[in-house]
Design brief:
The complex is a heterodimer. By secondary structure, chain A is α/β, with parallel strands linked by helices. Chain A folds into three domains: 5-37 and 221-328, Immunoglobulin-like, CATH 2.60.40.3670; 44-217, 3-Layer(aba) Sandwich (Rossmann fold), CATH 3.40.50; 333-409. In chain A, 36% of the residues lie in helices and 33% in strands. Chain A contains eleven helices and 18 strands. Chain A has helices at residues 59-74, 102-110, 120-133, 155-167, 183-192, 206-217, 251-254, 330-353, 357-373, 377-393, 398-409, and strands at 5-11, 15-17, 23-33, 44-51, 80-86, 90-98, 140-147, 171-177, 197-200, 220-231, 236-242, 248-249, 255-256, 259-268, 273-281, 287-300, 305-319, 327-329. In chain A, a hairpin with a 4-residue loop joins strand 16 and strand 17. The two termini of chain A are 38 Å apart. Chain B has no helices and twelve strands. Chain B has two domains: 1-30; 42-144, Tumour Suppressor Smad4. By secondary structure, chain B is mainly β. The chains are: A alpha/beta, B mainly beta. The interface between A and B is large, with 51 and 42 residues.
């Protein structure tokens, strides 16, 4: 059997104390391509879904057009591309095709004029249809959705489309420009389809976001990545988080009947994927204990490898030696701390949305402390400002919410 | 396990309080535990004998610290004459994958060289103990930690 990926499994503690009661344990599962694997040889199937509502007029529209030009110039001739634009009406500027008629497509994009309102689901539906035309398991199938406004009463329809895209292994990268858009919706669209999300404050950064997306597609090392963890009887998975491209709680989708089965989509060749599993282990006597088996399956279409499997066991040792059991792995500790900050922030925002100001303030204060511990001074400052705002006005600012939502999800990105 | 900050009762073994995020169990000792299959670290050694540790993380940024631009690479080459020798602020990144290491030039002005050959920007190149890596004009040897 070929084994093209490195799978590292690190427990929070190699040794757990014998306590006579159940305990929490964390496992970091890190997946990276081996150095011989060539990333980026997979062809892309890229659908752009772009907002042309009236508020896009001016700098945003100009930068968006330039960014589309960059995409067209940097896709290979064998990549597929489509361009859908939407306001409260939808137009397909380029139906799914090989990325060769660059000048004609650019001319079509150049002629776009900002107008109308924002109806995201209509644009997304048409874009998904275009992506489906070119869908192939061997391609990197992706939609890029860009908007600067709030959609009109079609959030649920947009999320249903994101679910559909996710089922088809078409990841949606959602990009919001400015501060008048619904970050919760765009983040959910990305999370449900196993995509990424960006917040752009300055239109000049649209090009960077598009460039990042093209680079990301061109460094994919493996597709149809799945992680299954068969737990030993008595070991209960509690939570599972993915951390690339951003921290996401995938427990609801991935944990069923004590088995963890997470669909992770594509594997970024440079960054890989890191998963954090939180589990409860039963009381055990001293000795080595097998928590479960991690199975990673994947395709490498360029090598015609399908459903390759890599397996690793998760072990801990129960010990009567208290000193040995105090040793905690620093790498796991650091990741758990980042996820802890993400959880606190999420709960703070949920409480604030429900009007529970005291609880929201308390959670935000706790999150601010964790941000400081992590050296994330800017996020800590944002949290402090929002606490003051909450006390004064009873609500969070749009800008502050976006900073916190995006900042905490991207705490695991080492390259800023 | 009771949180000292908020008094919330957490499950034994929890690292952070579920309620307030405070660290639990201050008695613990942080260690670098080798992953399954072993884990070898490398260092970068300069001609003056100084050794730069490569932190135990998957992506390590090599460059030149610049507080004004808020650039703080993981491995700062300023003290080795990075500025004079043309090291960019974010010059390269060393990726670790298990026991394998690669170096990737981040589009630096003066380039990155492995064994005297300039590598393409954003194309990771395998490195191992015994190799010579040059960032701009600053030459370093890869050694086992």
């Amino acid at each position: 059997m070929k084994n093209e990926l490195n799978v590292r499994c690190i427990m929070s503690k190699d040794a757990l104390p014998v306590t006579g009661s159940e305990q929490a344990v964390y496992a970091l599962i890190d997946i990276k391509p081996k150095s011989g694997i060539i990333s980026g040889a997979m062809a892309a199937n890229f659908a752009l879904v772009l907002d042309r509502s009236g508020s896009m007029d001016g700098e945003k529209m100009a930068n968006m057009k330039e960014a589309v030009g960059y995409v067209l110039d940097h896709l290979s001739d064998h990549d597929l591309v489509s361009i859908t634009i939407f306001d409260d009406q939808v137009e397909t500027l380029a139906s799914n095709q090989v990325a060769q008629n660059r000048d004609r497509i650019k001319a079509n994009v150049e002629s776009v004029i900002a107008r109308g309102g924002t109806q995201i689901s209509d644009g997304l539906r048409a874009g998904l249809k275009e992506a489906m035309k070119g869908y192939a398991r061997e391609r990197v199938n992706r939609i890029l959705l860009l908007t600067d406004g709030r959609t009109w009463d079609d959030e649920d329809a947009s999320l249903t489309l994101a679910d559909e895209a996710g089922k088809q292994s078409i990841a949606i990268t959602s990009i919001g420009i400015g501060d008048d858009w619904n970050e919760k919706l765009l983040l959910q669209i990305a999370e449900r389809s196993r995509g990424n999300s960006h917040w752009i404050q300055n239109p000049i950064s649209i090009l960077d976001a598009f460039r990042q997306e093209v680079d990301g597609m061109q460094t994919v090392a493996a597709a149809n990545l799945k992680v299954t963890i068969h737990m030993h009887p008595g070991v209960q998975p509690i939570k599972i988080y993915t951390t690339v491209p951003m921290i996401a709680d995938v427990t609801h989708k991935a944990v069923k009947n004590g088995i963890v089965a997470a669909d992770l989509g594509t594997l970024d060749g440079a960054r890989g994927q890191t998963i954090l599993l939180e589990a409860r282990v039963p009381a055990e006597k001293a000795g080595r204990f097998r928590l479960g088996e991690v199975e990673v399956s994947y395709d490498i279409p360029t090598e015609s490898f399908k459903a390759q499997k890599s397996r690793t066991d998760l072990f801990v040792t129960f010990t009567e030696d208290a000193a040995t059991a105090t040793k905690v792995n620093a790498e796991v500790m650091n990741l758990v701390e980042k996820v802890s900050a993400f959880k606190l922030q999420t709960r703070a925002l949920t409480e604030a949305e429900a009007g529970n100001i005291a609880a929201a303030t308390q959670k935000l204060q706790a999150a601010a402390t964790v941000f400081l511990n992590l050296g994330e001074d800017e996020l800590a400052e944002t949290a402090e400002k929002e606490i003051l705002g909450l006390k004064k006005t009873g609500s969070l600012s749009s800008m502050g919410t976006k900073k916190l939502e995006y900042g905490t999800r991207k705490l695991t990105q080492t390259m800023k | 396990m009771k949180c000292k900050e908020c008094q919330m009762e957490n499950i034994e073994g929890a690292l952070f309080c579920e309620e307030c995020g405070a660290k639990l169990d201050e008695m613990r000792e942080l260690v670098e535990i080798a992953a399954e299959g072993g884990n070898t670290n490398i260092v970068l050694a300069a001609s003056d004998g100084s050794r730069l540790e490569i932190p135990a993380k998957d992506e390590v940024i090599i460059g030149r610290e610049d507080p004004i631009s808020e650039v703080f690479p993981d491995v700062d080459l300023t003290s080795l004459g990075g500025m004079e020798k043309g090291v960019s602020r974010k010059h390269a990144v060393i990726h670790r994958s298990g026991t394998d290491f690669t170096v990737e030039d981040m589009g630096s002005t003066n380039g990155t060289y492995v064994n005297r050959k300039r590598i393409q920007p954003h194309a990771p190149q395998t490195i191992k103990p015994g190799d010579e890596v040059k960032f701009g004009k600053l030459s370093l040897s890869v050694k086992a930690a």
